[in-house]
Prior knowledge:
By secondary structure, the protein is mostly helical.
Amino acid sequence: xxxxxxxxxxxxxxxxxxxxxxxxxxxxxxxxxxxxxxxxxxxxxxxxxxxxxxxxxxxxxxxxxxxxxxxxxxxxxxxxxxxxxxxxxxxxxxxxxxxxxxxxxxxxxxxxxxxxxxxxxxxxxxxxxxxxxxxxxxxxxxxxxxxxxxxxxxxxxxxxxxxxxxxxxxxxxxxxxxxxxxxxxxxxxxxxxxxxxxxxxxxxxxxxxx
Length: 210
């Protein structure tokens, strides 16, 4: 669950950086999208088995141990899970980066120039111009990320359903029932996500009509 906002935030930040006028911008864009092309279940499994899902500095600074000592288990466990698979989170961010880049490039630069003339800081420009302009992209990225995480081969629920399917004592019927329940849960999560983002957009439309 926590992977969704982290993937979206990381993707947006990287997209904002890649949208700046920097040298080798096209090269860096290709580098971030390359994992999307070569990613597969066996590759991810191999990375996890070799303990390559985290960044060495996290282990050197004892970040995980610090989190365990400061937070209760129900909060520490999901956070530790993210830190231990931070490379995997970055690996899953390629498509979202492309989506955010497309959204950023559609924003008229004259709006930023006008805001700068009015004395708006970069932080204010982000909250009042960039973020509202990316709401549709956030919605699309959220839906894509949820579906991707829910259906990827390393998903523990998917693995369990596949294991049960070949269990002679339970068989295809039980695994099909599990799959339907899982599908309904994912559909509900998608529906709630869409409703939350659409609800935030509705007051803006009403304000414009007035």
